[in-house]
Amino acid sequence: MTGKESGHVDHAAADAPPHANANPDALEVAPGTAHERLEGWIPELAGEEELRVALEKAFDYRGDVTITRKDGSKVEGYVFDRRTGASLGESFVRLYPKNSSEKVAVSYAEIGALAFTGRDTAAGKSWEAWMKKYAEKKARGEKDLSLHPEALE
Fold it and tell me: How would residue 95 be classed by pLDDT, with cut points 50, 70 and 90?
């Protein structure tokens, strides 16, 4: 009996990081998140399922949305939380209104319309987009290769 069967431990291999000799192209890679272009979208809220799906997208959206209540009042702001219950009356969305510092909660049952009205502040901000801008600056021979964030509105 030889090797592992006899109890031999390869100490050099045990001390190496788990992927030290692994081919990086063969390693498991998690896929990135594909973001929909929702800016300007006004979803059709024909039923409960469409409303729930649209509000999940509003929660993931990186810009302001405008909620029109069934009574005609509107609130525009950034959705930071949502709680889903068994019914629309037990579910609500919370947002920071655009022109106020107080948080507002709106029941799903009160929502008549939803619109993605604000600019998606993270659109085009992928690693690939950053690398493309970096390569363009380098190709132009620019000395300052740092990329600065654009001003928020």
Answer: very high
